[in-house]
Amino acid sequence: MMLRLRLWASALVILCLPSRLCKPILRLLGHRISAQARLGFSLVLADHLVLQGTARIGHFNLLRLRRLVMRQGAYLGRGNVIHGPISVSLAERAAIGNNNKIVRGTRGLVTSGPACLRLGELAKITAEHRLDCTTSVSIGAFSTIAGTSCELWTHGYVHDQTGPGRYRIDGPVRIGRNVYIGSASVITAGVTIADGVIVGAGTTVARSLLEPGLYVSAGLRKLERPQSPDQRADLTPVKDEQLCERVYVKRVAD
Question: Which of 50, 127, 185, 197 is 20 to 30 Å from the Cα of 143, by its Cα?
Answer without folding.
Answer: 50
